[in-house]
Specification:
This protein has 214 residues and is mainly α. It has one domain (5-209). 84% of the residues lie in helices and 0% in strands. The chain contains eight helices and no strands. The protein has helices spanning 5-28, 31-38, 42-60, 66-90, 93-116, 122-145, 148-175, 183-209. Helix 5 (93-116) packs across helix 7 (148-175). The chain is globular, with a radius of gyration of 17 Å. It starts with a helix and ends in a 5-residue tail after the last helix.
């Protein structure tokens, strides 16, 4: 593939995913690190840092120097990996690998559709965004309800939402190719979007079909 915006975006997305999964995997094999991260308020501090980083990146990435944007993205991926370690503790590794492969195939198919389709997905993307907000609100409500059935329904809905958003985001990135904006920054902007699409698709599939450790 020629060295265009889309290829750079996918390259940085893969870097981010690699950092997250490797960090989570190695942390999950250290009892000391698990205790430090998940003991007391430490976990919530990391969650807040993770949230702050993604908000700052989303809002300021185009105004940052390219090197700063890349460092912030990799830092976000690393912090996400620290909180990601719990999946390697709770789920069997073969189940994680299988779900990752399934998520990767679905993601790749939808990315290809988004890249090649002539249909404008802007309106669909808007609908999916509002559907995602509704799903997040329902998810928060279910924290207090504790309904496993509702949690499963939410996961199914979120899988469908992120399948659609993946195609939309890839098309959006393709359309920015000739925008005149700095491509290094655009690549990180797009990588963050696609990283979040993949992670959420993977996590909801894992909640639906993942097998816990014996």
């Amino acid at each position: 593939m020629k060295d265009n915006l889309v290829s750079k975006t996918f390259l940085w997305m893969c870097f981010g995913l690699l950092v997250t999964f490797l960090t989570g995997y190695f942390v999950s094999h250290s009892e000391v690190m698990l205790e430090n991260i998940y003991g007391g308020m430490s976990y919530w501090i990391f969650v807040i840092v993770e949230l702050v980083l993604v908000i700052v990146l989303s809002a300021r990435v185009m105004k940052m120097k390219p090197a700063t944007a890349k460092v912030c993205f990799l830092l976000y991926s690393f912090v996400s990996g620290l909180t990601f370690a719990s999946i390697f503790v709770y789920y069997a590794i073969d189940s994680i690998m299988l779900i990752f492969l399934v998520a990767a195939v679905i993601f790749a198919v939808m990315a290809l559709i988004g890249y090649t389709t002539k249909v404008d997905l802007t309106r669909i993307g808007t609908y999916l965004f509002f559907a995602l907000i509704a799903a997040l609100i329902t998810m928060i409500i279910n924290i207090f309800l504790g309904s496993s059935t509702l949690a499963m329904i939410i996961s199914v809905v979120c899988v469908l939402i992120f399948i659609g958003i993946t195609a939309y985001d890839v098309q959006k990135i393709k359309m920015l190719e000739n925008s005149g904006l700095p491509k290094e920054n655009l690549a990180i902007y797009g990588a963050l979007d696609l990283y979040l699409d993949f992670i959420n698709l993977f996590l909801h599939l894992l909640q639906l079909f993942g097998r816990s450790r014996d």
